[in-house]
Structures are given as C-alpha cells and as structure tokens.
Design brief:
The complex is a heterodimer. By secondary structure, chain A is an alpha+beta fold. Chain A has 2 domains: 31 residues; 148 residues, OB fold (Dihydrolipoamide Acetyltransferase, E2P). Chain A contains 3 helices and 11 strands; from the N terminus they run H-E-H-E-E-E-E-E-E-E-E-E-E-H. In chain A, a hairpin with a 2-residue loop joins strand 10 and strand 11. In chain B, helix 1 packs across helix 3. Chain B is globular. Classes of the chains: A alpha+beta, B alpha/beta.
C-alpha cells in the first residue's frame, strides 16, 4: 500500500469523525436547556393569585418581605425541579447593580433566582402571566433573598419583575408595575434609594 | 339547575385553609354561574395548602395546576393556598376566601382580568381584588366568563 493511499484513508476517517461530531453537537443544541424538541411537550397550565401588586417602587419598599432590589442579566437556567409540590426553575443572574439592600445581605456577582414553572421530561409547566426567564434577558428584580440559603425569588408576581430592553425599563406585562414611558435603566435605578 | 359539576378532594391542611376552600366553593355555588363544586373522596381535582414561603412561587398566595388531556379541559387539577401568607393574621377568613374563590375561577377555565372582579390577579395593593376592591365573590364579569363555557 502506498503512503498516499494511507493518507487518504486517514483524511477520510477524520472527515467521518467530524461529521459524526457535528451531528452530535446539533442534536445537543436542539435539546437546549433540557427542554427537548423531539416531541411536542405537554403543557401544564399554572395560574396564580399574587399576594401583592407593587404599583411603584415606594409601595414595593413597604413590603416587609422585600429585602433586595437589583438589576442583572440571565446567564443560564438550571434544570427544572419538582419539590414541595411545585415545579420551579432557578435562573443564574449576573448581578450588574444592587439598588436597594437595607439588610446589607451578602450578594455575590451571581445570584440564583427561583421562579415557578419549567420543563421536566416532556412536560412544560408554565404560568401565563409570569413567563420563564430567558438566557440573556435583562431584568430589575424585587427579591426576597433567604439569608440562610442565599436563594432568591421575586415578590409581587409580575409587578416584581421589570424588563430592561435597549436600556429602557418596561413592565413585564399589563399586570406589571407602573413605569413612565421611556424611563432609562440608569434613571430608574437611581430613583430607588429615595423612593 | 347547574350545568357542570366539579368534584374535589381535600388534602391535609390547616383548618383555616380548609374553611377557605369551603367558603370559596360556597361563593361560587350560590352564584348564578353554571357550575358547582362539591367534595368527593376520589376526585381528580385536589385542594390543599403548602408553605411555599414568600418567594417560592414568585409571591403567590394561591396557585392552580391544570393537567391537560386530549378532548376535555383538563384531566386533573391541583389547587393550593400558600400557607406562608394565608396563615398570617392579616389574612382573615374573608381574604382567604378571596384567594380560594379566585383559584376556583382558574379551575373552571377563567384567566386573569383587571378591575374589580374576582379574577383580578392581586390580593393586595393598588387596584387589587381585595385590598382595592374588597372582592371575595364572583362578579358579573366572572360569571359571564364561566357561563360562556358551561
């Protein structure tokens, strides 16, 4: 056998390997965050009654359970879990600004924020008026941070989560907090301490 | 005569929350809505309570799961009060009823609606169902929504 023929065999094997690797990567990407795309997921609708509506920052700060207001970006989502009778998903937030922390809780550069809903197997649990966090999403969150576990979660349902899009603060939906149109993130965050 | 009958089973829970479900059911049963809700031992709809904490469900004081099926509205349902809130003294029986009657509204297929209606999503705060409007029974908008379906 000639040396050239062996080289062609090696190249051919490498190419096959690369094709197989690409197919595996595409398959993995298609599965996303464990949500799966191979079958239409079963949707379990969840609907909530929310304890309190924050009309504005001032009313939010009167909630004794609220202990942190911060802005951040979703870095990733942990796998959903069913515990204590409810399906939840933890989002890993990169904290960009802490606007209010009267108890001086220890907040790192990332924080786990728990939200109801998520996908387990082929079943997607979702709350209509509190959509799942998405990777890359920017939010201003009104949180209760558990001092023992460090786990955080929003309060006030949709009114405790504001979206930041292109530097502008917007309510999550029609049930959300009142925010004047075209309020910049910087202006909103700067107004929080004195509200 | 009522059009749709829902059977529910109670899970273990505090007497206050159990009474809350009783009162929420009663509020609907005496209304002109075309359904009623009564306990039944092996029902596929369950009502209970659980302490989700202040932030375990995004600040909810009640939550409902509707498991789907192919040719019906849902195959089973689970309704919970968040006892972190409902056990508070500030949550009177009338307020707990506001939560449970709201969740029963979800159970029969109602979505959230703004204004002084039972399906207002918030219990307290500006413009809320109880704190703003003092509502713990279905209003005409809620009843019309139900009667459009049953």
């Amino acid at each position: 056998m000639s040396k050239g023929f062996l080289s062609r065999q090696v190249v051919f094997v490498l190419m096959i390997g690369m094709v197989v690797l690409c197919m595996m990567l595409v398959g993995a990407c298609a599965e996303g965050n464990g949500t799966g795309t191979q079958a239409t997921p079963t949707i379990v609708a969840m609907d909530a009654s929310w304890h309190i509506r924050y009309a504005d920052v001032k009313s939010a700060k009167q909630d004794p359970d609220l202990n942190v207001i911060l802005s951040g970006t979703v870095l990733s989502l942990k796998p959903a879990q069913m515990s204590n009778g409810i399906v939840t998903t933890d989002a890993v937030f990169h904290v960009t600004h802490i606007a209010w922390n009267p108890q001086k809780l220890s907040i790192g550069s990332t924080i786990l924020v728990r939200a109801p809903g998520g996908t387990i197997g082929n079943t997607r649990y979702e709350i209509d008026d509190f959509p799942m966090y998405r990777v890359g999403e920017q939010d201003i969150l009104f949180l209760h941070v558990d001092q023992r576990t460090g786990l955080a979660g929003t309060l006030g349902g949709p009114s405790g989560r504001l979206l930041v899009q292109n530097g502008i603060v917007k309510p999550l939906n029609t049930e959300g907090m009142n925010v004047p149109p075209n309020t910049s993130e910087n202006a909103f965050l700067a107004s929080i301490p004195s509200a | 005569m009522c059009c749709a009958h829902f059977h529910v089973q109670y899970l273990g829970m505090s007497s206050k929350d159990s009474t809350g479900w009783d009162n929420g059911r009663y509020a609907w049963n005496v209304s002109p809505a075309n359904f009623d809700v009564y306990p039944y031992q092996s029902a596929v709809i369950s009502m209970g309570d659980y302490n989700f904490g202040p932030n375990g469900c995004g600040g909810c004081d009640g939550i409902t799961y509707l498991n789907p099926c192919n040719s019906c509205t849902y195959s089973s349902a689970s309704l919970y009060e968040n006892s972190y809130y409902t056990s508070m003294s500030t949550y009177t029986y009338a307020i707990v009823q506001s939560v449970t009657a709201h969740e029963i509204g979800h159970m029969v297929g109602l979505a959230h609606s703004n204004g002084c209606v039972l399906m207002n999503p918030y219990t307290f705060g500006s413009g809320s169902r109880w704190g703003g409007c003092g509502i713990n029974t279905p209003r005409s908008d809620d009843i019309n929504g139900v009667n459009a379906q049953y």
